[in-house]
């Protein structure tokens, strides 16, 4: 599995498809720290960004090669479902690298009154991990062999991310996080992880059973 | 097909001009590396193959031939465990080395692709690349390779993968006569070390000399004589009459017909 993840990351690195989501994330981050100078404010603003970018990365990494090369790699992995899981894990790894960078910056360079730096860092990581995992699990449904048309993938991914962000419990949790209430954000992160795990397992099974 | 395994016995003869190695194969009952039971293959609800039961034993080369669109690639994908049959079942290893007829080349250096392709224990690919007459540079990116060299690279990836099962679609696609002969030679050598090889090719292309030939006929798979064996191999045996008679009789069980 680790070799499969490493290979997926190599393919993704050479494809250059990581550049666009990275630029979007950086721009979003700059806007966030400009408009929300405190760590938790920034974090609340970054949740939708990681959700969207996680989805984008998973969809683009999953479809990084053509059908024949994917079959070759699936045979080495043991099945199409295993390859699918490895690529989802690789996508999450990329997101977590971004999350680590931004959490470090948010906890060290920004202020959060009355909270220890380490606590801020851990809250940032947990929340962004939840957002990334949820994004990746959505994106894992949006690439070949399940979806082969990029337009369908783009529209579905965008709609799913917007729906989740507009979902009132999510908005409440993010608002409370902006007001330094951490507990609802942690509940949100746990729920996101649970939903992500279920969605990822589902997409893996669907891939295994797909006829393409 | 009865689950059988093969063991190899070698009898080397040294006639005046060149040495001939005759591989005699005896069958013993054990588990096949991969087996399909009563498999049905459909393409958009049209049945291509039905009731296919086939197995490949350790050390065996199985060649599947048939016309375009007959279901060869679909059958190979099921054998490689990367597609599910419409009916029936597959028993075999989860992972294997699968070589598609072509790939859309990724922007990686050939050496990086080969090095990073996820395998447990890869053998040194350089001697096999040389054997297949790979005449390009491994530092080139995959899109810069000719189709023939790309195919050779894909084959070398499988040949050096260390997997017990190799599944190769269109073995000779993109290879010249010399490349095809070299690839067949490597396959036969791998088979002698216990690797199971399943290949497909067009119906008029020669199979490796030791391959068990199967042909897609309508919706079924039938065992046929390996025609390439008759056409391509000429063996002159010199020695005591009794020894030659013994050898030809044994070799006759594999479709070898002395003239």
Helix content of chain A: over 70%
Q: State the low-pLDDT regions of chain B, or none.
A: 1-28
Level-2 CATH architecture of chain B: 3-Layer(aba) Sandwich
Mean pLDDT of chain B: 81
Number of beta strands of chain B:
11
Structural class given helices, strands, pairing of chain A? mainly alpha
Could you tell me the CATH topology label of chain B: Rossmann fold
Number of helices of chain B: 7
In short:
Chain A has 212 residues and is mainly α. Chain A has helices at 2-15, 19-35, 39-62, 67-77, 80-108, 117-139, 150-166, 168-178, 183-209.
Describe this structure in words.
The complex is a heterodimer of chains A (212) and B (259). Chain A is mainly α and 212 residues long. Chain A has one domain (2-209). Chain A is built from 9 helices and no strands. Chain B is an alpha/beta fold and 259 residues long. Chain B has a single domain, classed as P-loop containing nucleotide triphosphate hydrolases (Rossmann fold). Chain B has helices at residues 72-79, 110-116, 126-131, 147-159, 177-192, 227-232, 241-252, and strands at residues 4-13, 20-29, 34-43, 46-56, 61-65, 87-91, 97-99, 165-168, 196-201, 212-217, 220-224.
List keywords for this structure.
heterodimer; A: mainly alpha; 0% strand; B: 259 residues; alpha/beta; Rossmann fold; six-stranded mixed β-sheet; three-stranded antiparallel β-sheet; disordered N terminus
């Amino acid at each position: 599995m680790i070799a499969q993840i490493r290979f997926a990351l190599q393919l993704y690195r050479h494809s250059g498809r990581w550049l666009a989501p990275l630029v979007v994330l950086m721009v979003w981050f700059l806007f966030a720290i400009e408009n929300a100078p405190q760590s938790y404010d920034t974090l609340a603003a970054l949740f939708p960004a990681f959700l969207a970018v996680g989805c984008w990365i998973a969809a683009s990494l999953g479809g990084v090669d053509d059908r024949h090369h994917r079959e070759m790699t699936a045979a080495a992995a043991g099945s199409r479902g295993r390859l699918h899981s490895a690529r989802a894990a690789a996508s999450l790894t990329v997101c977590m690298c971004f999350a680590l960078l931004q959490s470090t910056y948010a906890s060290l360079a920004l202020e959060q009154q009355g909270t220890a730096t380490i606590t801020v860092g851990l809250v940032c990581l947990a929340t962004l991990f939840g957002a990334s995992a949820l994004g990746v699990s959505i994106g894992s449904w949006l690439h070949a062999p399940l979806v082969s048309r990029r337009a369908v993938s783009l529209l579905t991914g965008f709609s799913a991310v917007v729906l989740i962000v507009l979902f009132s419990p999510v908005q409440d949790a993010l608002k409370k996080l902006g007001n330094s209430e951490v507990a609802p954000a942690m509940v949100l992160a746990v729920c996101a992880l649970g939903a992500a795990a279920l969605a990822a397992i589902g997409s893996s099974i669907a891939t295994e059973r797909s006829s393409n | 097909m009865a689950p059988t395994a093969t063991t190899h016995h070698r009898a080397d003869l040294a006639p005046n001009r060149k040495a001939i190695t005759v591989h005699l194969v005896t069958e013993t009952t054990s588990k096949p590396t991969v087996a399909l039971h009563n498999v049905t293959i459909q393409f958009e609800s049209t049945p291509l193959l039905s009731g296919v039961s086939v197995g490949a034993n350790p050390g065996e080369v199985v060649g599947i031939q048939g016309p375009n669109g007959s279901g060869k690639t679909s059958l190979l994908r099921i054998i490689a465990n990367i597609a599910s049959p419409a009916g029936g079942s597959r028993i075999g290893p989860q992972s294997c080395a699968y070589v598609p007829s072509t790939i859309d080349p990724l922007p990686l250096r050939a050496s990086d692709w080969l090095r990073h392709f996820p395998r447990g224990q890869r053998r040194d690919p350089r001697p096999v690349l040389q054997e297949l007459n790979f005449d390009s540079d491994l530092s080139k990116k995959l899109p810069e390779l000719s189709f023939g060299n790309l195919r050779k690279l894909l084959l070398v990836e499988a040949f050096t993968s260390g997997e017990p099962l190799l599944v190769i679609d269109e073995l000779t696609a993109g290879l010249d006569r010399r490349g095809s002969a070299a690839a067949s030679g490597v396959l036969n050598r791998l088979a002698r070390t216990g690797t199971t090889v399943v290949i497909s090719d067009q119906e008029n292309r020669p199979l490796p000399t030791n391959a068990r030939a199967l042909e897609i006929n309508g919706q079924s798979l039938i065992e046929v004589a390996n025609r390439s064996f008759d056409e391509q191999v000429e063996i002159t045996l010199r020695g005591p009459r009794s020894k030659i008679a013994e050898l030809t009789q044994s070799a006759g069980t594999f479709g070898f017909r002395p003239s």
